[in-house]
Amino acid sequence: MKKALLSATFLSALLIGFNLTTEAQAKNWNMSSDKECEHCTRSMSEWFGWYKNSSLKSRTYRNNGGLKAVTIKPAKEVREIPTDIKPLPEDVLNFVMNRDTMSLMVMEDGVLVHDWARPFVKKGSQVINGESRSKSIVGVAIATMVCQNGIDLSKTHAYYSPEIAESYYGAVTVGASMNMMARDGSIVGYELKNIHRKKTDIVSKTNRYRKDLEFEGPKWFKYSNINTDLVMLDMFNILGGKKGFKQWFHKNVATPAGFKHKAKVLLDKKGHAIGSSSIMLSRTDWMRFSMYVMQLMKDPDSCEGRMLHKAFDSAEDTGKKFAPEYAMFFWLNGYGVEDLIQMRGHGLRLSLIDWKNNRVIQTNGFAITWKPQELVNLLWN
């Protein structure tokens, strides 16, 4: 009994010591040891725990019930990122240190000039969940599949995924989903967190919305995670499941983008990839993907480049000031930058691609509590 009590006391002391150490480290992550992040929603110690447990989801993440992930091999020929790293200007450093940001990369004229991150953010091969920034990777992947005559944007989801034929989304075309024009404004509650935590799956969730009980909403843009997940479901069915997807994604996305590190794609409990979120790349590979998008945009004679240009030229109006248009799972324009291409994820995980001027602002954040326009003004205007 005494031994058990001593062990419990010792363990409690260790835990208290660990928590105090974590808090002390958190303060050192800020601008000074006695100043918390001025405009952050939580302390850095809280964000550190969130970063480890949420940002880096994998099959060992205890809170998702053991969901598996597809691991994609890196490219044999890695895309080089020219670098001439300089310290952040004082006003930019003050901005990011006092916002819910964990890292910032800035490319100018095709050269990486700034690479800042909080100390707990590893700069190597550690993957970061792109959140909804993942959607844009699906957009490029589908453009490639169209160019290979592997998928037809005018076909419905039911054509490729008969398992959801009786749902509302069965009659929605692939192209409509990619532009968020499924007219699903009347459909309530696609809870991504339940899919992340093994409470349900993409097919079961979709089939809750029966076509005989639902009706089409207005003929305008409506952002919804389910659209991307169903496009990914179509892709999985076309490619013959997880194994076929893994091989195809390595050959047609990781290789042309020149990824240096392994990528991960989280699967739902039935083994389908979660395309609306949970594509995980290293920080440098997120930058490599932005460089790949720029490459495609600068080569309109390529099939994929031609597709992106055509889609962006006829993009849907969003009604959003930060990005007035949307197409192929990309937000477009905004922030006073002509022809801006935006990849956006929860927590302001941003890749702002000014492809005409060969420059990128890439952030990974914790919360949507800051205005990207302020950062764009500091860096580009």
What structural category arises from helix and sheet content?
alpha+beta
Residue fraction in strands: 5-15%
Q: What's the overall geometry?
A: globular
Question: What do we call the CATH topology?
Answer: Beta-lactamase
Major sheet size, sense and barrel closure: 8 strands, antiparallel
Q: By CATH's scheme, which homologous superfamily applies?
A: DD-peptidase/beta-lactamase superfamily
Give the CA-CA distance, first to last residue. 69 Å
**Radius of gyration over alpha carbons?**
22 Å
Helical content band:
25-40%
Structure notes:
This protein is of the alpha+beta class. The protein has a single domain (69-380), classed as Beta-lactamase (3-Layer(aba) Sandwich), CATH 3.40.710.10. It contains 13 helices and twelve strands. The strands form two sheets. The chain has an eight-stranded antiparallel beta sheet. Strand 9 (330-332) and strand 10 form a beta hairpin. Helix 1 crosses helix 2 (44-55) and helix 4 packs across helix 12 (303-313). 43% of the residues are buried. The model is unreliable at 1-35 (pLDDT under 50).
Identify the notable features of this structure and list them briefly.
381 residues, alpha+beta, Beta-lactamase, 8-stranded antiparallel sheet, 4-stranded antiparallel sheet, 13 helices, 12 strands, 15% strand
Give a short summary of the structure:
This protein has 381 residues and is of the alpha+beta class. Helix content is 38%, strand content 15%.
Topology (SSEs and partners):
Elements: H1 2-28, H2 44-55, E1 69-72, H3 90-97, E2 101-108, E3 111-117, E4 127-129, H4 134-147, H5 157-160, H6 174-178, H7 192-196, H8 202-206, H9 225-239, H10 242-257, E5 263-266, E6 279-282, H11 283-297, H12 303-313, E7 316-317, E8 325-327, E9 330-332, E10 341-345, E11 349-354, E12 359-365, H13 372-380
Antiparallel strand pairs: 1-5, 2-3, 2-12, 4-6, 5-6, 7-8, 8-9, 9-10, 10-11, 11-12
Helix pairs in contact: 1-2, 4-12
